[in-house]
Amino acid sequence: MLSQGELFTAVSAVLCVAHAVLGVLWWARDRADRAVVARLDAADIDPYHAVATTDRDPGRDADRAGAAELLLAGLIRVKDDGQVAVTAAGAAPDMTPEHPVPAAVLTTLRGHAAPWALNWLYLDAEHRARRDAFLRAEDARWPRWATRSRDRVKPAAILVTVLFAGWCSGQLLYVRGAFSGPGGEVAAAVFVGLLMWGVFALVLGLVVLAVWPWRRDRFSAYCRSLPPHPAEAALDDEGRDRLHRAMTYSPPRTEVVEDLSWDPGAF
């Protein structure tokens, strides 16, 4: 029969072995990710997919690059206030670009009779559906990177640690004989044990969060190392300035001047 000290040592050893195994799995996956990234130079990565991959909002940079292509082709124009309008050439159905991203941007702008802001594209659900369908299809071409932000190793390490914290809480109560009393005392002991489990899990979980690294998004890092989107790179200084104003447009605020003079007769 193991003593409590020996049992604690054995369970702690199991915890260390579990973390060691998870650490090996993390290292093996990271090594495989590096090997795949090393072969990406010979791959055909769509430039719109590349710029979307590097952005926290996957669609914003793709929309900007699509608008740059439309601007270069003369299919849209940016007004002085930053709003965008479709040109006569852009209104012609046969002038729709072949690529789905600029085609989605142009289709959305055609649906607005008045000039519209590019940075409001995210409000259009139909536009997001058209654009995101292409981005999801491109993700499917790279199955390893479609789940690049999904990390199962670190959550597993946190789960093992939380279970260990629960076991420690139960053992502390067992050593103090909390489960050998009347029913009321046992219920109180269970409540205290749950509180202890929460405290231990919080402390140990924070340690695991600080020590364990998340999966490295090496595909996004590779895409960030690529040259700018060809359409954006081809814009001159004026074109880049107009595109920037279009992507950062904010409607003018209507100033309301209130008459703050005091009229004693009003009271």
UniProtKB/TrEMBL annotation:
Domain of life the protein comes from: Bacteria
The keyword Transmembrane helix is assigned to this record: yes
Key words of the record: Membrane, Transmembrane, Transmembrane helix
Transmembrane segments: 6-28, 156-174, 186-212
Name of the featured protein: Uncharacterized protein
Species for this entry: Streptomyces fructofermentans
